[in-house]
Please model this.
Amino acid sequence: MASDEVQARRDAWYRDPYPLYERARRSEGLTYVPECGAWLVARDRDVREVLLRAEEFSSANSLLPDVALSEAALGVLPRGFGPRPTVVSSDGAAHRRHRAPLNRGMSAGRVAALAPYARRVARELVEGVATGGSAELVADYARRLPGLVVGRLIGLDPADVPAAVHGGYRAEELLFRPLPAAEQVAAAEDVVALQHLLDGYVRERRARPREDMCSQLVAALAPGDGELTLEQRHELVTSLQNLLIAGFLTTGALIGTTLMHLLGEEDRRQWRMLCAEPALIPAAVEEAARHDTAIQAFRRITTRPVTLAGTDLPAGAAVLVAYGAANRDGERHERPGEFDITRPVDRRHLAFGYGPHGCPGSRLAREQLRLTLELLTERLPGLRLDRDRPPPRMMPTLIHRSPEALYVTW
Ligand code: HEM
Model:
């Protein structure tokens, strides 16, 4: 486990990575970041290059955990399922096998079919918030909508969604936060519980397939209709867990961060603009995704000696591919540090990645932020940060950049 000092330095730059990005973009070549044990790739053109050269920059370590697990936590995990490679950590033909059902399951048509459900749930959540005189929007809204929506996509019973979402957040904490020993064991137990819940769905859908992503993943990854082998169940549960977490952690973060920026300005100028002119909402969605990117960075590992931005890397070198740094590259975006919803809609940012691993869920994520802004500006135009509370503080993470809490009043 990282020493306390290394952990403290890492947390500080995770909460505000932008000064380091700025230095890295200005420096020649790549910048080595000892806290992460990886070379930081920070310029837009270099990030694109890594993502396209997928044969040389493997995804095998894309989500390498930040912390080592205790023996006790490691003793709990074998009671669950996995780990196995998933879409996000595989390359080449193995990646295409995992990716095909996701492309089909999150096509434009599928997302359009899901939109009325997402709107209904979002409206109910907004009404729930509106009944009080104040709220904490991360817990009361941003962390709730995406779980219900991705749950519906996968085919989860809404009654199972809170437990599934809880297990997903615990999985992220277990692998990326330095928890005390007893907490690690408790988190590992929650992860195992999530995996057994998902295994129940996997076996049920094998027996009685439906029109949902769980059934599609079962059919694609374990063709046939015989009883699933234990190995197939391990792979399917790992893949479903990955899809679930990819679906809600990120989208919840984007919703929370966007509201924080809109409401955080001294005079709420851009919030008021959105209330007066809802036609600006699509541009606001794109600008929010670019300006304070929800997934700041994922890793890659070199498969052979390569040169990137003039830096020679040996085989087996870890790189940190910083979408969030590329999105503030002045060579690509004018006034890159400014959050400005009046920019013309420009989707050529890297918030949703690029190349073979580019996000298959970006449509669904954009749709949820769009309808959130539509409903909140219409229902609660007086929304403002609660100035009696401490100002929002960012979570110490690169994989779901979000305020820890967002206290509001109206
Ligand atoms: C604001 C919300 C989201 C952001 C910022 C985001 C961002 C990203 C990024 C940057 C990648 C590329 C990872 C890489 O290069 O290795 C990615 C991949 C992925 N995303 Fe998203 N995502 C979001 C929402 C979603 C949603 C809603 C889903 C599903 C319901 C989803 C499912 C996935 C999956 C399965 C992958 C792996 C694809 C692959 O490796 O081929 N994401 N996402």
Q: What stands out?
A: The beta strands are 31-33, 38-41, 57-58, 134-136, 298-302, 306-308, 311-313, 318-321, 384-385, 407-409. The chain has one domain: 4-409.
